[in-house]
Write a structure and sequence with these properties.
42% of the residues lie in helices and 23% in strands. α3 packs parallel to α6 (138-150) and α10 (227-233) packs across α12. By secondary structure, the protein is α/β, with parallel strands linked by helices. Bound molecules: adenosine-5'-triphosphate (ATP). Residues 13, 16, 18, 36, 38-44, 85 line the site of adenosine-5'-triphosphate.
């Protein structure tokens, strides 16, 4: 049985249905990447799993039990932690206070154990526990947001664009950290614009296009598939590129999708 399973999930904002008929699974210990252009619906999916948005059709099963009627706090208690896009840490609060907020649903005894876990992963946060979070760099704030998510002792961590607004040097540290979290038994759903780096650490991936899954498979297959560029094309501005020869187009898309490969020369 998958740890998490979405069956025919549809969700939206008011009358605007963003996700339609999404089927997705997350097995224990996996890193699964959600890819797609801006506005494809990836954040909406993360919100529907954590309960910030209610799905209006379909079901979401955690360990085989439906959770779609549960409020976010209960889903958190059951092991789903959401690290939202843009981090949303509290700039006017200290590191320790931000972490405390992440632990509101765990017992006092668990809290101490979680802090030890977080200090082990992020020694710098321990050193700076009394500092205001607002004085941190983008990358450090992202680390703090992930640490806050870990305070709830999650089974599943939903990471929404963890590399956004983070200096390149820290981006690789964040991807390294995500891999380390998996070895700690945490299952990860990773929303990322940075497709190449996400797929390089993921087991599987799903590609979203206009609120639907259009491609899914092992990360290594997606990474090597010439088709993936064309799939992304469907999410970009088709009109803008429709006159180009397909080879040039694929090359252009790869540059956009996988900027790291052009920087690194391969
Ligand atoms: P991004 O990387 O830009 O966040 P995404 O794939 O995560 O892209 P979503 O943020 O899920 O996409 O947005 C999907 C669609 O839902 C978009 O059309 C967006 O305009 C719409 N949308 C997102 N948030 C809201 C909201 N709070 N109210 C209404 N519509 C929204």
């Amino acid at each position: 049985m998958p740890l998490l399973e979405l069956k025919s999930v549809s969700v939206g904002y008011g009358r605007n249905r963003v996700l339609q008929n999404v089927n997705l699974t997350l097995d224990r210990g996996e890193i699964v990447a959600l890819l797609g252009a801006n506005g494809a619906g990836k954040s909406t999916l993360a919100k529907s799993i954590s309960g910030l948005l209610r799905n209006d059709a379909g079901t979401i099963l955690l360990d085989g039990e439906p959770i779609e009627a549960l409020p976010p706090a209960e889903r958190l208690r059951r092991g789903i932690a959401h690290v939202p896009e843009g981090r949303q840490i509290f700039a006017g609060m200290t590191v320790a206070e931000n972490l405390e907020l992440g632990a509101y649903a765990v017992s006092e005894a668990d809290r101490a154990e979680r802090l030890e876990f977080v200090w082990m992963l992020f020694p710098v946060l321990r050193e700076r526990m009394k500092d205001l979070a607002g004085n941190f760099s983008g990358g450090q704030q992202q680390m703090l947001a992930i640490a806050r998510g870990l305070m709830s002792k999650p089974k599943i961590l939903l990471l929404d664009e963890p590399s956004l607004g983070v200096a390149p040097l820290l981006v690789s540290e964040i991807f390294h950290l995500i891999t380390a979290l998996r070895t700690q038994g945490i299952t990860i759903l990773l929303v990322e614009q940075n497709a190449r780096q996400a797929l390089s650490i993921a087991d599987r991936g799903y590609v979203f296009e206009n609120g639907k899954v259009t491609l899914e498979g092992p990360a290594v297959d997606l990474l090597n598939s010439p088709d993936i560029a064309e799939r992304y094309l469907g999410m970009g501005s088709a009109a803008e590129v429709s006159g180009l020869a397909s080879d040039a187009l694929a090359g252009k898309l790869r540059t956009v999708l996988f900027p790291a490969s052009t920087e690194a020369g391969g």
